[in-house]
Amino acid sequence: MKLWGGRFSKSTDALVDDFNSSIRFDARMYAQDIKGSMAHANMLGKQGIIDKSDSELIVKTLSEILKEIEDGRIEFEIDAEDIHMNIEKILISKIGDVGKRLHTGRSRNDQVALDIRMYLRDECDNLSAMLKNLQKTILTLAENNIDTIMPGYTHLQKAQPITLAHHVMAYFEMFKRDTQRLTDCRKRINVMPLGSGALAGTTYNLDREFVCEQLGFDSITQNSLDGVSDRDFVCELAFCLSMIMMHLSRFSEEIILWSSHEFSFIELDDAFSTGSSIMPQKKNPDVAELARGKTGRVYGSLMGLLTVMKGLPLAYNKDMQEDKEQIFDALDTVKMCLPVFSNMLATMNVKKESMLKGAKGGFTNATDVADYLVKKGLPFRDAHAVVGKMVAYCIEKDTVIDALSLDEFKEFSSIFEDDIYTAISLDTCVNQRKLTGGPAKETMQKIITKYKGELQ
Ligand code: ARG
């Protein structure tokens, strides 16, 4: 019989049992469920709501159940519906009537809210650790490529020379913000809902603060209706995950481009590439492609969650059981992507010569030619026009600006002197851009050192 079967005269249809059941996907919250129940039982005993000896037996048995689950000695039942009732049923099978006292002053509605909060806060910590590893990989890559000049792009057209260090450190900033976002999201996750009951709280003299402290929460929920029906934090986490994926996906796109024959900026390690079943020459960047592709499913989870919640009246509705597969899938996906992506970066071979060659073409120093004229007194708009003409001339002649003779320079403006050549060398273009945020070696060194310290 169901734990809630008292008012029913028929057993549940087998299809409904299967349809209703969430044990297939909420079983992963077993440890949170048990720890939450232990804290609840301790509190019931402390408050004299149940006998101290009963609460002690419940806690002891729950810890045995936890061990049995961890040892793989327990099989959950579909018709016990979810992880909460499975564990309660096992408890009752072991200690009978004493076990039946555990659910005093509690509803599955506040219980599931508690469990998912505990589960997700741990996952925030796991994700932060993974992001930290990725950030470390990026820092090492940056350190090794502080002098690796490459073209920077806008519109995927060559724009100005930068370094690979500068480029990858842009991603460091993104993952840094992702970490901050997770830390912030965790604050809203870490609020303790037990005591909300089914929706209207309870008449028992529960000590909510005690449970809060025992379970390591920062505070308790302030409205019982909201306590059981709030899934904002799940949506918020799904957004944080989506943002991480968006960043991974942009980075992946560049890895894919860079490893193409046309760019040849990098070569992925064999261990992080795959071949083709028909074309013997192929070496494909599948890891990056999959990370890019999996972004879609994480966005899907975010949309799914927001849509599940959008029409729900207060308070708990069974629709909310749909939160778990979405957020778990999003979490699993991101947790799978982060380490493999990080290792792919760590092992890839940077083709510094190709990057340099890329920076030499496409007139990436044209802005610096204009700036040269400006520094010698020409208004910027006039300088821009002069250099525009020079570029057109070079395209016509199939050459680059730095290959022009001083006489040719002077045909465009008498201001040019022979210091123009150093002024527009790639080294100058990169290393004179030393404002905070710029690609200059000394600027990059400073920020890398700073972030290395922060990650310690
Ligand atoms: N399995 C349910 C969920 O995930 C637990 C809460 C069920 N509450 C209820 N009143 N049926 O949301």
Describe the structure.
- The mean pLDDT is about 95.
- The protein folds into 3 domains: about 10-105, Orthogonal Bundle (Fumarase C, Chain B, domain 1), CATH 1.10.275.10; about 110-145 and about 155-205 and about 220-355, Fumarase/aspartase (Central domain) (Fumarase C, Chain A, domain 2, Up-down Bundle), CATH 1.20.200.10; about 360-455, Orthogonal Bundle (Ribonucleotide Reductase Protein R1, domain 1), CATH 1.10.40.30.
- The chain has 19 helices and 6 strands.
- The protein has helices at about 15-20, 25, 30-45, 50-70, 85-95, 110-145, 165-190, 210-215, 225-230, 230-260, 285-310, 325-345, 350-360, 365-375, 380-395, 405-410, 420-425, 425-430, 440-455; strands spanning about 150-155, 155-165, 190, 220, 265, 350.
- Helix 6 (about 110-145) runs parallel beside helix 12 (about 325-345) and helix 11 (about 285-310) runs antiparallel to helix 12.
- The protein has about 450 residues and is mainly α.
- The relative contact order is 0.10.
- It binds arginine.
- Arginine binds near residues 22, 320 and 321.
